[in-house]
Structures are given as structure tokens and as C-alpha cells.
Amino acid sequence: QLQLQESGPGLVKPSETLSLTCTVSGGSISSSNYYWGWIRQPPGKGLEWIGNIYYSGNTYYNPSLKSRVTISVDTSKNQFSLKLSSVTAADTAVFYCASDPVFAFDIWGHGTMVTVSS
Amino acid sequence: EIVLTQSPATLSLSPGERATLSCRASQSVSSYLAWYKQKPGQAPRLLIYEASNRATGIPARFSGSGSGTDFTLTISSLEPEDFAVYYCQQRSNWPLTFGGGTKVEIK
Fold this sequence. Notes:
The structure holds two protein chains of two kinds.
Chain A: E1 3-7, E2 11-12, E3 18-25, E4 35-41, E5 48-54, E6 59-61, E7 69-74, E8 79-84, E9 93-100, E10 107-108, E11 112-116
Parallel strand pairs in A: 2-11
Antiparallel strand pairs in A: 1-3, 3-8, 4-5, 4-9, 5-6, 7-8, 9-10, 9-11
Chain B: E1 4-7, E2 10-13, E3 19-25, E4 33-38, E5 45-49, E6 53-54, E7 62-67, E8 70-75, E9 85-90, E10 97-98, E11 102-106
């Protein structure tokens, strides 16, 4: 059974880079026809898609974040990662990683809260 | 970017009642629409994909319908655990987008 787990700092200073990792267990991150995605949710608000990475390495980003986002895969560790640069308080959110076998986000991590504050 | 508009924002119903949630897309998404349920403090859970297919383990009281720009999620008889926020998401075009959510609350 596929499981995903986010990890990373819970507190990031303004203007710095937020870095999170999603560890995939119970399956291979190199599975064909799978995307791996990041979604965030500010406190009390709705879901916002950040970006996806395809098993082949192709990336797709939300245009509103594209200039600040990088998603990458480390197949040797069965992990994929998110970097969001130049963060502000508006980036404070719960960040989720999820698997996407083309049709929807079917398996989600529990989420990790990241607060941007000095 | 495809905008998804969910209505109503809040639905107040009693256990055992039928819930009908709407999701309207700003342009056609064919059948590439999914529905998720989220309870407080939890990650979203996939309910329906490709407009009408129930995800693994989802009870039959949940059903999805629609195509093009208009979609409906129906819960035939509300159970206590169904009171939550529901989101739709389109998988037709990049960027992927979510609707703003419908909260189903106990009346």
C-alpha cells in the first residue's frame, strides 16, 4: 500500500527558501504513468496546487508560483522534493504531497505545517 | 486557467438527508473532474475521479455525475462522518485547479 510522508522545517524566515521532502513507501517513485504532486492549504482556506513532477522528470507548476518553485525527484531515495524561494507570511500553510496516477490525487501525505516568520 | 466554482458555500442538513453539491467549470474539462472530502485536521481524501468513478473504499452513497462544465456530487443519505468540506478539482488542463469548497454542516 502506497504511503507518503512529508518532512522538513516547520518554521522558515521571510525571504528564505522553504524546503520539503516527501518520502514514498510501498511503491516505486519511478512507476510509469505516475505524477507526484505538492498542494498547500493556508490556515482556514482552500487547497492550492503547487506543482507536479512526472515519473520521467517533467515538471508542471502553478503559474502563480512558477518563478519561485522547484520540484525534483531522487529515485535512489524514493523521494521527491519541493523548494519555494523568497517566502513571505503569505506562504504559511499546510503542505501536502500526493500521488497522482494521471486521474486524480489518490494518496495524500498527512501534511506538514510550515510557518513563515522571523 | 480553468476556474472551478462550487455551490453552495455551505449546506446545512440533517443526518439521513440527501446532499447535492455543485461544481461548475469556466470551460469544458470533459470528464476529468475529481471530488475530495476533507475533515478538520486531516488530509483530503479522494472520493470520485473522472466525474463518476468511486475511489477505492468509498461507500456507494457517494455518487458523481456530469461532464463538460457542470458536475454534481450526491450523498444519498448523510452519515455523521460525512459532515466535512468537499472540494472539486479538474485534471483536464494545466495548471490543475481546485474549487473553493462546500462545507456540509449539521443542521
